[in-house]
Amino acid sequence: MNKLFEKYCQDMQAWDACAEIYEKQIVSGHPDITAYEEFEEDFFDRILRFLAETQERPIKLMDIGCGSGRLHVRYGAKTADVSDLEKDHPLVQKKIINGKLAFDRLLERKLKEVWGIDFSHKMLDLARRKLKGLGLESKGSAKLTLEQGSAFELKNEPDDAFPVAVCLVNSIGVMQGPEGAQELFKSMRRAVEKSGGIAIISNYQKEYIETYGLGQYESTMDVSGQPWWMVPDTYANLSYVHIPKSYKRAFSRNPELIVDVFDREGHVIQKDFTLTRDPDRTAQVIDSGKIRTHTDYESNWYAFDLVESWVRNFWGEEAWHVPTIKLDALRAEPAQFSILDVNQSLKPILGRWNVV
């Protein structure tokens, strides 16, 4: 566990360092990533409404690895009645731009709290700033809670609310490798088991790292640094920032990427600098599913069969493991859902979608 803690501290520093640019380039950036995030949000909209209709207890949504508060903003907005606010209020404008944030009276009544935990102080600061800027700290009916801490140390949830614990968009892949991933499975089960709740982990499959993963990390290297498999490494250190000229979309086989290189003060160092995939290193990444960059960033895309073994070992017979392509072939092809449903509360709706 000491090595796991050391890696936890190292990764925490890496995420604190890239928080601001991550918010710009990933949360509001790469089209394949945002498409998958939209799929996740649509899925959870339907899950939460189903639970709100079928469960007597109020719902507590728990975002494990909450980052900059994507679910807090979404469900804070959906439970906020803005009929008394001026049209130019930031929250009103956000709802106008995104119709999916329209006021939901059922969720206002049944969603008790959106609680999130993350190890990065900087990411949580971003979340608090967003909530404050929209006025959601006081406007939404759901309590919005953010906590700095470890996803591996979740406590048993009391049974006064129905807990729905989620870990989204491959957050498990940046939780200190396979050992950390297994700790997350155990921790999320511990959180919801006694209170009869639900836990869901959403992550990318290693089988899709060649067609989806390589291009995503190459196109957003200003967030986490130059990928280990791209050469030359002339500017591959913390003194420089690479700004890709375009996004690589899924299934692109172009081994090259053109970037502009800047120093940390924003001065241009090299325009139109060409990076190319090293064949041997690229093959290692595809085979291992492990992403590395020259700035100590690491991420893992886990194979479907490996995650299946974790689901069976740590969540048992009350769980399902679903390739998300079965739910949305256009937006969710490369990923997988692990679903722990202690009292089989979701079985009717998942059966309707032909995934169980």
In short:
By secondary structure, this protein is an alpha/beta fold. It has helices at 2-27, 31-54, 70-78, 90-97, 105-110, 121-134, 136-139, 177-192, 209-219, 221-224, 279-288, 304-315, 347-352, and strands at residues 59-64, 111-118, 143-148, 162-167, 198-204, 230-231, 240-244, 256-263, 268-277, 290-292, 298-300, 319-323, 335-341.
Structural overview:
The chain has 356 residues and is an alpha/beta fold. The chain has two domains: 255 residues, Vaccinia Virus protein VP39 (Rossmann fold); 91 residues, no CATH class. The protein is 42% helix and 21% strand. The protein is built from 13 helices and 13 strands. A seven-stranded mixed β-sheet has the order 3-2-1-4-5-13-12, sandwiched between helices. Strands 6-9-8-7 form a four-stranded antiparallel β-sheet. Helix 1 runs parallel beside helix 6 and helix 8 runs parallel beside helix 12. The longest helix is centred in the N-terminal third of the chain and has 26 residues. The model has no long low-confidence stretch (mean pLDDT 93).
Strand order of the largest sheet: 3-2-1-4-5-13-12
How far apart are the first and last residues' alpha carbons, in Å? Answer: 36 Å
Q: From the helix content, strand content and strand pairing, which structural class follows?
A: alpha/beta
> What is the total tally of β strands?
13
Q: Key features?
A:
7-stranded mixed beta sheet; 42% helix; 4-stranded antiparallel beta sheet; alpha/beta; 21% strand; globular; 356 residues; Rossmann fold
